[in-house]
Amino acid sequence: STGVSDSATASDKIIDAPVSDPADLKIAYFSAGTSNSYLQASIDEAKKVADEIGADLDVFDGEFNAQTQFDQMQQALTSGKYNAFVVEPNDGNLVCDILTHDAPDEDVLVSVFNLPICGRATKLGEDTYQPGTVTYVGGQTLDVYQAWVQDVIDAHPDGAKIGLISGPDLNANTICFLEAAKAFDDADGFEVVAQQATDYTTPKAFDAAQTMVQANPDMDIIMSNFSGMTRGVVEAVESKDIEIYDFGGDEWALGQVESGGLASSVMMLPRQETREAIEAVADYVDGKDVAAFINLTKSDELPGTPFATADNVGDFTAEY
Amino acid sequence: MNQPTDLTPALATGTGAEPDRAAPEPQVLSRFAMIGVLVALVALATILYPGFLSPENLRDILLQNTAVGIVALGMTFVIISGGFDLSVGATYALGATVSAGVTISTGSPNVGLLAAIGAGAVCGVVNGLLVARLNINPFVATLGSASVISGIAYLYSNSAPFIVSDPNFKVLARSSMAGIPTPILILAVTFVVGGVLLAMTRYGRNIYAIGGNHEAAWLSGLRVTDLTASVYVMTGLLAAFAGTLDASRLGVGQADVGANIALDAIAIVIVGGTSLRGGEGAVWRSAVGLLIFATLTNLFYSLNLSQNWQLIAKGTIVLLAVALDSWSRNRRA
Amino acid sequence: MNQPTDLTPALATGTGAEPDRAAPEPQVLSRFAMIGVLVALVALATILYPGFLSPENLRDILLQNTAVGIVALGMTFVIISGGFDLSVGATYALGATVSAGVTISTGSPNVGLLAAIGAGAVCGVVNGLLVARLNINPFVATLGSASVISGIAYLYSNSAPFIVSDPNFKVLARSSMAGIPTPILILAVTFVVGGVLLAMTRYGRNIYAIGGNHEAAWLSGLRVTDLTASVYVMTGLLAAFAGTLDASRLGVGQADVGANIALDAIAIVIVGGTSLRGGEGAVWRSAVGLLIFATLTNLFYSLNLSQNWQLIAKGTIVLLAVALDSWSRNRRA
Amino acid sequence: MSKTPAHAIVCRGARKVFSGAVAVHGADLEVRTGEVHALVGENGAGKSTLLGLVSGRLAADGGTVEVFGHRTHGGNPRESRERGLVAVYQELTMVPGLSAEANVFLGQVQTRRGLLDRRRMRRRYLELCDELDIQIPPTTLARDLSVSQQQMLEIMRGVESDGRILVLDEPTAALAEHERETLYRVLRTLTARGTTIVFVSHNLDEVLALSDTITVLRDGQVVRSAARVEWTRPTLIEHMVGRTVDQLAERGTHDAGEEVLHAEGVSLHGVLHDIAVTVRAGEIVGLWGLVGSGRTTFLRSLAGAEPSSTGRLRLHGKQLPWPRAVRRAIADGIVMVPESRKQALVMGMDATSNYWLGRTTGRGPFLDRSRERTEAGDTGAFFAFRRARLGEPVRNLSGGNQQKVLLAKWAGHRPAVFLVDEPTRGIDIGAKAEVLSSLVELAREGAAVVVTSSELEEVLAVANRLLVFAHGRVVREIAADDPEFAVDAVVRHGFSTGATHEPAH
Ligand SMILES: Nc1ncnc2c1ncn2[C@@H]1O[C@H](COP(=O)(O)OP(=O)(O)OP(=O)(O)O)[C@@H](O)[C@H]1O
Ligand SMILES: Nc1ncnc2c1ncn2[C@@H]1O[C@H](COP(=O)(O)OP(=O)(O)OP(=O)(O)O)[C@@H](O)[C@H]1O
Ligand SMILES: [Mg+2]
Ligand SMILES: [Mg+2]
């Protein structure tokens, strides 16, 4: 359904480590952007980790634009300054080629986190890992969305009418979210009555949620794919009897879960995911074994589940 | 050659003989074509979505479009004055950020509001200087200042949202007067004041003049530099205020909002029938344009139209509307 | 009636006294102010980032800006003709999507390229009809068509990326001729052809005329409708081709690219010194504008400037550049 | 300083340079309070520039300008306006999207309690209309008015501003006889009130009739400034052009040839009613009528510029479809010189490109610049346009020179039918003779020429036949040998309502 033709043209062997001491690593860290607190936390952690292992690290701000990020990677390769890329892609497909062909050709190690690359966004588990890269660190893969949807289904034995608020079409998270939401079609008593794509901003989510609620007075649940949007949803829903499921798990969201404003929030771990992605490169250089797929939802930072609810919210610590 | 007395009646007869030269019908048609479009859209919306005309839905529509409406009001002035302002999105975001940030740091939403408006005024003054004094093309000037303003908003907020817990912060957007939500009242008042200012005062007349023929305005002794600058200042103020309103509505101020607000506001003004060439247009036209857009967006959300069909439908309707408008104008000529 | 001979010397004396009437200096300064800005920027870049002038870096700069450059070339024609095209971003995305999609479904990158260019031509024809025949303001017309085109690109691609594995698909963007990457050659050739077309042919002169004085052009018997439409068609073609080039470079075609390309292209054209009022400007100016932007972006990437500082620096530099330009022009007058 | 200084305006050594070109050098001008002062000179002599320095539109590069004894610095029209100097400029300064009324009150609106006082302005507008004998509906948009109507509005604006000095740059160039008379009357009223008037005109008769003092400019310098009594028409011309011009132009003596143009039933709803015209090769047919009588619209219809007009057209005896596009008419050999330069020239382009616009040297798609320059220069010389200025943007040319470019551009088509609307608007007496003579020359070469002018004498000087327009109809056709072929009779016909006389059905 994704229109992805076979992407197995990349060499699937990881290149040999270009250096043998992690302290000799010169890391280009490609952030999706810099302009939200999630990314600020990631960047902060990245610098910390680089300090710990004694490696150099430069941050590239992808400005939420896949082509900008592509251009930055090309330029980083041209400059010859780096021997490792740690990448949080804006779009896993646009940068597939450069990460699986051009980077290895220049003896640059690649570690990916947050979004899978090369059309693997809708794959499950280990399959989100692209051979040729060092590892993939993820906590918002299709499996997580499926578990999230299942969580909603389980919590409502009598069924429910559901509204979905996603980011823009074509965004990997949106694709996974909507793909996972198909499970509602098969579940008894569940119906997706409204669904709206936004640009991830609070005001747009507010408008969308307000209109949805207005047009569907019998809606029971809104699932929002990002805490930034959820803030708008919470304001729009006001005192109406609608449960809000959030994906993000930032400080605000955990506070809302605690006070009952949100039914639950899926934890995202910007610091953890960045740390794992950088440490994976260091480990590989050290000659240690590195897991192809590091599943953040199984992280020790979490109390065994990524879903924070009123009952277990005390066990969670927001990372941003 | 003392026949002028002959001429007067002669010409008068001439005019009398062809009173239908400027027959009113086509003009009315063209002047009010967009109102027709709006009515048709509302009718369509009511058919497709029966709850469309419910008071709650109408209230939501207006609330959701208060901010862009206020920005479009400022843009109406800028465009009629022959200018252009692409920086309103950034100023809107700055207004939202500053009002929330200052409210948090001072504990007073009023100080936050004042700070935001002050920031908007500064943005407006800068744009005014660039355009009116340095004679920079307004498109480039405001594209450049937008970039700077946006950067400052990110810097100030440290790229993080300011989440305001103080309930007083929400009073501006959440209170009501006489049963009407305050933002809707504000929207109505600004449009009325703006309309009067533009249509019925010396200042308004002068704005039309500088937009319609800059040189003529200058030659007739108008202070074109100050006048030009003033519309940018007003627009900056309004944009920052719109940002404050939205921050109050959402309880959050952050720098990444408002990306589309400049283009949306311009589209609203122009779909209403104000000309981008300057010197023509009216505030009521922007009100009509605003309602057309608001109706469309509400309809799309209510109908759950997917993004691609939304894009196609919105584009098509805008094109049909302006084509109808242009056709009815040409028919007149 | 044989007095012209009498008159001519009488007047000629007048000229003889002031042979230096068109003193070159101030004009040169203003005409080439932007080249000065470019040189200064390059100097600055070389100081801040020593690798700036390395052949690899220069190659990267050009490769990264080929697409926006090609779009800006089309935009130069549109703006000189007195128009505006906001739909190039959507057409670019459609070109990328169609070329990749058709390549996957037919197995032939050439067919994909042709299909993309065909799609671009259709977009251009639609814009041309809207603007030239239906007389719709180009700003609204292309804003509307952008929405429709973008929706179609999403629909066609089913809101998913087309990832092309066929290595031939990448030949267009990844091959070289005589050591020079093909896209750079293409960029150079299109600019030279465009420059010649605009400056040295009758078609080019007619484009200046319709932009400079639409009515005069019409009264001179030019086919203003066809001419106006033609620039939109050309721009549509170029935008779709730019999309194809980028899809080939990235190996992926998807509908959500190109959001900033219209504004970037317009900014490039105007920073180069072409007037938004139409009737004035040149292709070489857009080339200078392109290089200024390319240098800035490259410098920012190389310096790892964070987005907020990038925004501030970019805005400031653009403003300084155009202020200098405007200052040197005013000095002349 | 006394309340009213003896001199309203004093310029000493005023100098203005445009990108290296000296437009005015070292001009001294003294205008006494209360007098009517005329500035005359050839096209490009620097009259408009000098007025610009006085009115503050331009800043002087040297010398001083004083208004009522106060030194002004220029570059800001407010400055002199505050001293009571009001200017009406040569280029029309209308705001196209505003109504006629709003244009009159541009920069001088009347308000009551902060709001526009519409009733008072309307009343004042109608008063002004009465005073100036104009009928322009107050709500008509300026863009829908003809050039002469706009000019009248501009004068209304000048009168309304009630300045102590009124500066007018060629106020009558776009006016017909009748409006001129009205304007003269108004000027006399103003002078009686003590207003000082400075005006530029190429019409020497009005200059001699109205002025107290006349100043002649040539090549940017004052040649002579003296009281009216010291001037005669020939001395004026001699000072202006450095030679004598005794007659405007001579009618061609050649015989008319075959019929070239025959149009009948030309109508445009509400403007033109069933007009017919026949022109033979070598003939010049003049059109005359009052402002708004439809001459321009008639010529535009013939030239394909009024697509909704209807009519029947025979050219060289062959029936042709009615032209609905300018290019169609051009292909048929009918070209029109439009009445407004602003409308018909691309101001940012040089004269050569303007000349060639819509035409080709016929060598593929590329421009052949040197050949273009040669031919444009040749045709330009025919209208006394200097070759050296071909490469300059038309914007930089003086009004008269722009007019010459326009004429040359259309004459360059070597048309079978040459329709000329106001060919002498704003050109000096020397060039006027050139232009009129060149029209006769074109006719002698076999073209059929139709010409309108608001200056009846000019039409009478060159035309073989005259059509008198009133209210969109031809009320009279007068041949050159008819005793009615004279100013008085023609004007009388022009004032007819169009109903009393038999329309040319
Ligand atoms: N803006 C300008 N830039 C360059 N040259 C100019 C400009 N304005 C006027 N000139 C030149 O200055 C000279 C004087 O022009 P000006 O308009 O004062 O003449 P004029 O006496 O009013 O002529 P006319 O009777 O044709 O109106 C001309 O040679 C003209 O080309
Ligand atoms: N297309 C049109 N539609 C409606 N009215 C028109 C149109 N064209 C001209 N008019 C009006 O018709 C009248 C005739 O104008 P026209 O310009 O033909 O007169 P004219 O004899 O050339 O007078 P002038 O001395 O003003 O040049 C004017 O009142 C003008 O405003
Ligand atoms: Mg003049
Ligand atoms: Mg006329």
Please specify the SSE layout and strand pairing:
The complex is a heterotetramer, with 1 copy of chain A (320 residues), 2 copies of chain B (333 residues) and 1 copy of chain D (505 residues).
Chain A: E1 26-31, H1 37-53, E2 56-61, H2 66-79, E3 84-87, H3 96-105, E4 109-113, E5 135-138, H4 142-155, E6 160-166, H5 172-181, H6 183-186, E7 190-197, H7 202-215, E8 221-224, H8 227-237, E9 243-248, H9 251-259, E10 264-267, H10 270-285, E11 293-295, E12 307-309
Parallel strand pairs in A: 1-2, 1-3, 3-4, 4-5, 5-11, 6-7, 6-8, 8-9, 9-10
Antiparallel strand pairs in A: 10-12
Helix pairs in contact in A: 1-10, 2-3, 4-5, 7-8
Chain B: H1 4-17, H2 24-31, H3 33-48, H4 55-80, H5 88-106, H6 109-133, H7 138-157, E1 162-163, H8 171-174, E2 176-177, E3 180-181, H9 182-200, H10 202-212, H11 214-219, H12 224-250, E4 252-253, H13 261-272, H14 283-303, H15 307-332
Antiparallel strand pairs in B: 1-4, 2-3
Chain D: E1 7-18, E2 21-32, E3 36-41, H1 47-55, E4 62-67, E5 70-72, H2 77-82, E6 85-88, H3 100-104, E7 111-112, E8 115-116, H4 118-132, H5 147-160, E9 165-169, H6 177-192, E10 196-200, H7 204-210, E11 213-218, E12 221-227, H8 233-241, E13 259-268, E14 272-280, E15 284-289, H9 295-302, E16 310-315, E17 318-320, H10 326-332, E18 334-337, H11 341-344, H12 351-356, H13 369-382, H14 399-411, E19 417-421, H15 429-444, E20 448-452, H16 456-462, E21 465-470, E22 473-479, H17 487-494
The structure holds adenosine-5'-triphosphate (2 copies) and magnesium ion (2 copies).
One magnesium ion is lined by residues 47-48, 90, 169, 398-399 of chain D.
